[in-house]
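Quick one:
INPUT:
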């Protein structure tokens, strides 16, 4: 496959989401602490005339102990049914 010119490029998919973010402080065991960004995405991925709903919470460790990130994820799973999605939106 050769190089494409800019006018030959076409979108393969679209991601339409509303993102809301919040930075949290989280205290863990034995005095550990972390700053964690929680980003909530609500919308859809569109491709080939199909639509895949997106409703996800992404947690990103900004600073501190990674154990706190896992503790926050486990606490959130206790509040609502959640699963880990290994694929990013573009791969889906």
């Amino acid at each position: 496959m050769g190089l494409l010119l800019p006018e030959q490029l076409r979108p393969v998919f679209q991601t339409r989401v509303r993102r809301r973010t919040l930075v949290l402080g989280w205290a863990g065991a034995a005095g550990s602490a972390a700053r964690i960004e929680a980003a909530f995405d609500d919308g859809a991925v569109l491709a080939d005339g199909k639509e895949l709903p997106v409703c996800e919470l992404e947690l990103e460790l900004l600073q501190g102990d990674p154990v706190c990130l896992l503790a926050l994820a486990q606490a959130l799973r206790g509040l609502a049914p959640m699963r880990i999605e290994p694929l990013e939106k573009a791969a889906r």
